[in-house]
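Sample entry (92 residues):
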Amino acid sequence: MKRQQMMLQMKEVDHALIKLGEWLTDIAHTNGSIELNRLASNCRLPGIEAILDQPRLLQHVTTTEITNLIARGNAKIKKLNQRMTLELEALN
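Predicted structure, serialized as tokens:
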């Protein structure tokens, strides 16, 4: 996989995590959950965030490390999506 494709995947993962954080924040405000609000405010992965903020860091990271970051991001998306589904069901 090329570095440019990896950057694109990291951007997609980061964007999805940001959106999930926004949605979870909305749900937290609706039901007054401090714990959910804390979870929502801490959605992004620091490794991906750092590389996207400073693309030069990509030179110092191996392809395997980038692949692992993307996989961790996708796992976190799945986990947060499941949590959001549970919270939405509880609101109904």
